[in-house]
Design brief:
This protein is of the alpha+beta class. It contains 2 helices and 13 strands; from the N terminus they run H-E-E-E-E-E-E-E-E-E-E-E-E-E-H. Helix 1 packs antiparallel against helix 2.
């Protein structure tokens, strides 16, 4: 029981929040993504992607970003398609987004809907969702195929009077012939282990904690009875 509890706790907290603080025009960073085949049942090859981000203007009310994203996944005889349908990020303070210059694949942006947002994978607090056909996914025909690159210009509008903004999580959705996967991003080469469904891991942990609590109470009650 203790080993299982430790494992689920590790799973729940292994998806560390990846964030970047931006303060000025010219700030730049990279975000990489990895879904490892060695630790993902049913996946025959790694899913990978990389992106570069550049702040081209920064004011008290608006931030302009140039984003370039590349699907670096290598296809095989088993993994015959691995396409990126959606990516996004959280913003603090809250902001809305609009496309200044659309990419060839990623042409739409939304702010999600509701407290859970609409981004796949159970990620909360995702203010900006960038997609081709829909925030939740869409068809692979309209997605960023393996080996392809897309670039776009994005405008964030909000109250940035403090002189800084934090962008975080950077989740992405891979849609493949071997399933769909939604890892968070790793900023500036910082390693992170992602959990495709963090919400589910949390539910499992809560359930296990509940079972553990009931077991402890029953043991205590048994000891009292024996006395």
């Amino acid at each position: 029981m203790n080993k299982l509890l430790a494992l689920l706790t590790a799973l729940l907290f292994s998806c560390q929040v990846q964030a970047i603080q931006i303060n000025n025009t010219g700030d730049s960073w990279t975000v990489n993504w990895l879904v490892s085949a060695s630790s993902t049942p049913g996946l025959s090859s790694d899913l990978t992607a990389t992106s570069s981000w550049l702040v081209t203007s920064f004011s008290a009310t608006q931030i302009a970003l140039d984003i370039s994203i590349t699907n670096t996944t290598l296809l095989t005889g088993l993994l015959t398609n691995a396409d990126i349908t959606t990516f996004g990020f959280g913003v603090s303070p809250d902001a809305t987004a609009s496309i200044a210059t659309a990419g060839s694949t990623f042409t739409q942006v939304s702010t999600g809907s509701g407290p859970q947002q609409t981004f796949p994978g159970g990620y909360k607090g995702i203010n900006v969702c960038i997609f081709a056909s829909g925030c939740a996914g869409g068809t692979v025909n309209n997605a960023l195929n393996a080996g392809s690159t897309d670039s776009l210009k994005l405008l964030l509008t909000g109250n940035f009077g403090s002189g800084s903004a934090n962008l975080s999580y950077f989740p992405i959705k891979f849609q493949t012939n071997q399933g769909s996967y939604e890892p968070a991003g790793c900023v500036n080469g910082n390693g992170c282990t992602t959990v495709p469904e963090p919400g589910m891991a949390g539910l499992l942990l809560i359930g296990l904690l509940g079972i553990t609590g009931i077991t402890i109470l029953r043991r205590k009650k048994s000891l009292v009875t024996l006395r």
